[in-house]
């Protein structure tokens, strides 16, 4: 049987969370329209108090102000306590390398979510996450982990991710750690060739995807981190022609951020007019100049950024950026 290419929401979990969200939202809106503040409203899960206008929260429950509506909705929908709810969006943002990403279908749209066997969850649960008794469900922005059928689940607010921004974040972290010219391996989704999932240096970095069992689901490539920026952010017109200037300005911004932190620091280091540099990277045709008035040519800019190739249509062809490899070609350690 062919593997399903995308993760799917658990209909029951997604439905019960959305039901509580709709019930609560409708009750709040109804009271606002009626100007019926400081009122109790009986809902399916209990009595909610609509707080007075200007209060620190819109509602209170059991005498306590509700300051995190998402947490409250999930706790009521899945009948869990505060100790079983974790908002880890900031952890994912700051430690993206501790997570493996995978496409999930929400309605007709495809996003990325994080896998249960990401290093973050492995560190927390150990071998228990692979137990036959354990079960994971996805409900849009939430990952729901059951240790067994009888236990209350742990619910993680992970959010949903855009594939492009996630790819750039992973490349940025890898470039800062290893250097932009370092070559690494890239994993793409076969059914959506543009969808980058993960990068690494050894087979173990891709173990979460089980490519040895699902070889046809993934494509692997090898190349520098800088080349990856150009591959993943390359712009083309409706005829497939590479838009060199648009691609260049997007990628140079990302590479400057990776190498120097921001445009200001880069310009200060090389005594470049930061206003002209910012304008150039924003798409204007203005020449970039040093603060003394001398022109900074595009080729010199490429040298300052230590690019491994010149930015032109020929170099930006896929075959000149990343090289396709087999999973077996990736070193084991």
Description:
It is a single chain. With 333 residues, the protein is an alpha+beta fold. The protein is 35% helix and 23% strand. The protein is built from 11 helices and 17 strands. It has helices at residues 11-34, 69-78, 89-94, 119-125, 163-178, 225-232, 244-260, 263-270, 274-281, 298-304, 318-321, and strands at residues 7-8, 39-43, 46-50, 59-61, 64-65, 85-87, 101-106, 109-114, 135-139, 142-146, 154-157, 183-189, 192-200, 218-224, 288-289, 295-296, 323-325. It has a 4-stranded antiparallel sheet with strand order 2-3-4-5, with helices on one face. Helix 1 crosses helix 2 (69-78) and helix 5 packs antiparallel against helix 6. The radius of gyration is 25 Å and the shape is globular. The mean pLDDT is 92.
Highlighted features:
single chain; 333 residues; alpha+beta; four-stranded antiparallel β-sheet; four-stranded mixed β-sheet; 11 helices; 17 strands; 23% strand; globular
Mean pLDDT: 92
Q: State the secondary-structure class.
A: alpha+beta
Note the beta-strand portion.
15-25%
- H/E series: EHEEEEHEHEEHEEEHEEEHHHHEEHHE
Radius of gyration: 25 Å
- Cα distance spanning the termini: 32 Å
Q: Given the structure, what is the number of helices?
A: 11
- Number of separate strands: 17
